[in-house]
Structures are given as structure tokens and as C-alpha cells.
Amino acid sequence: MAEQMQVVEITQAGGPEVLRPTTRDVPVPGAGEILIKVAYAGVNRPDALQRAGLYNPPPGASDLPGLEAAGTVAAVGPNVSKWSVGDRVTALLPGGGYAEYALTHQDHALPIPGDMPMDQAAALCETAFTVYSNVMTRGGLQAGEVFLVHGGSSGIGTTAIQLASAMGARVFTTAGSDAKCAACRDLGAARAINYRDADFVEVLKAEGGADLILDMVGGDYLPRNVRALKNDGRLVQIAFLQGSKVALNFAQVMMRRLTITGSTLRPQSDGAKAKIAADLLTHVWPLYASGRIKPVMDSEFPLAEAAAAHARMEASEHIGKIVLKVG
Predict the structure, then answer these.
(1) Where is the Enoyl reductase (ER) domain (predicted)?
(2) What is the pLDDT of the chain when averaged over all its residues?
């Protein structure tokens, strides 16, 4: 195995142009860790936030961006029992995915479902971990409930639509163009709302309200989400693309017995992430293996062109996931 590897690093806080290809030493796996020879790495909003200086990696994690990857196990550290060199894996990473080799905890890697190709496998973990833990576990979505997910054409959105539909929910979503709305309906959304033309609050009220809303927009969507919920409804917040501070009348929350919660994935403990991985293997991976649900792929860029991948993501023109071809 080589001692040096190609990576893309963040040279300073800023726009996509601050991403720079360079070389670094190949990391060595510690106790309970595996080293993955990366074939493809996923590109996600948290990568852009880290690049902008707004989302620091947790202590001990690589400073390189990249929170998910697929490839083969290149080496294992002490006390690793789940994986062997050569195994094909897709994995949630604490960072470091924009590189030829990346480390992760052995319990945060999963077998690639069925015969899924590596590029699709690289698009699984960040979104699947996020959607399952927030929609199914934290949000408690049940079959027959009305579920609204904002940003339906994003990686999170396309995963949430498919998974919630497969589990028997009635799915509504928002998106910013007719083409994106059509893509969402094709994935199983009962109604896709072009937010430039219609008010999702009025649409959901006409349906009796949403039982559960998954939101990554924030800002003025927060009070609007509250109005769109039915009594005893739940709102799960996972990001704040339009800001995290807003005025909210909590009397409505109390009177209508609403639940507002949320989470971020990266800072959670190794044990918490391992529990999500185990749940995915049991409940979600069979759906991927059978082809009942699948990652929606937008585009692929070489590792050295990570800046262009970020520019596409931040232009919000994509439908589904963007990946970097590494190996």
C-alpha cells in the first residue's frame, strides 16, 4: 500500500475555490478502525459548511471534508472483528472522505447492498443515517401518516421520499421547479409543491395538516411549519439553510401539543452511530438490495474537481446526489 495519497483539502474558509488538491500521508487505523481505499466519496451540504468555516470537525477527526464513501477495506486496526481486507463497504465517516484512503469506526461501515455499483453506494450513508434516525427513530413516522419533507430533490429529500413511501406514509414535499417536483412525484411523493408558486402551509392545511415534517431550511419556515402541522404533530429540524434564529409563538406549540426536535449526525457518539447502522442493516438495507429504493444520482466529478462539485451543489441545480470519483 502506498505511503502517500491524493486528497482535497480546505486551504482557508471560503467558497468552492478554497478546495485544493494535494498529497498527504496515508492514515493508519487505530483500535476498532478500518482503513478504506476510497472508490467514490459523497458530496454533502455539511462539507460546504465546513469549507465555509461554519462546521468544524469533531476532536480527533480528519480536517479533510467528506462524510461518506464507498470502497474496499485496505487495512484493519487492532480489535477489528467485523471486516477483513478486501471487503466491499460503504461507510459513514467522521471526515476525510475527499482522499484516496479514509478511516472510520468498524461499526460505521456497512456491506454494499446487493450488486449496487460503487458510485451509488457512496451516496448512501450520510443521507440514510440522517433520514432513518430523524424520520423513523426521532420523528416516529408511522404507516398512514402525512409526512412533509422540504427540499425533496436533494439527497436527503430523495431518500426521505422513497423510504417514507416504502414504509406506508403519505408523502408531501417542496421543491423549487416543476422538473424537480416531477422527479419527486416519480419517487413516490403524493404531492410535490413548487414553493415558488404555492404555499405549502395552505396545501397541508387542506389535507388536515402534517403528522411529521422534516426540515433543513429553517428561517421563516419554522413558524410556517408549526402552522402546517396537525394537532399532536412533530417537527424535526436537521439544518438551517436560511438561519437558525426566528420569532416563534410557543403558545401554539403548547395549545396544539406539538413536538419540535432535531439533531445533527456528525457530533454523535460512536455508539449512537453504530446503533443507527445496525437499524439500517435490518430495516433499510434489504430495500436497497431488492431495488425497491435506490439512491438518486445527479452527477460525478473527479476528486481533483471537488470545487466544481461544490459549486453545482450550492447552485441548487442538482436532483439527488453528487459524488467524487476517487479510485
Answers:
(1) 14-324
(2) 97
147: left (phi over 0), alpha (psi -120 to 50) or beta: beta
Which neighbouring-strand residues pair with 239? none
Residue whose cell numbers read 439527497:
155
Reduced to 3 states, what is the DSSP secondary structure of residue 229? strand
Assess whether pLDDT exceeds 90 at residue 1. Answer: no
pLDDT tens digits, one per residue of 46-72: 999 999 999 999 999 999 999 999 999
- CATH no., domain 4-124+267-325: 3.90.180.10
Neighbours of 60 (CB within 10 A): 8
Q: Is 245 helix (H, G, I), strand (E, B) or coil?
A: coil
The fold of 128-262 is Rossmann fold (3.40.50)
Is the distance from CB of 66 to CB of 102 less than 8 angstroms?
A: yes
User: C-alpha angle 257/258/259, rounded to 5°?
Assistant: 125
Say if residues 98 and 24 touch (Cβ distance below 8 Å).
Answer: no
156 within 8 A of 127, measured Cβ to Cβ: yes
- Percent of the chain scored above 90 by pLDDT? 97
Residue 108 grid cell: 460505521
Note whether 68 and 36 are within 8 A (CB): no
Q: Where in the chain is the domain with CATH 3.90.180.10?
A: 4-124+267-325
CATH 3.40.50.720-classified regions of the chain: 128-262
For residues 195 and 308, what is the distance between their CA atoms, to the nearest angstrom? 27
Tell me what pLDDT residue 133 has: 98
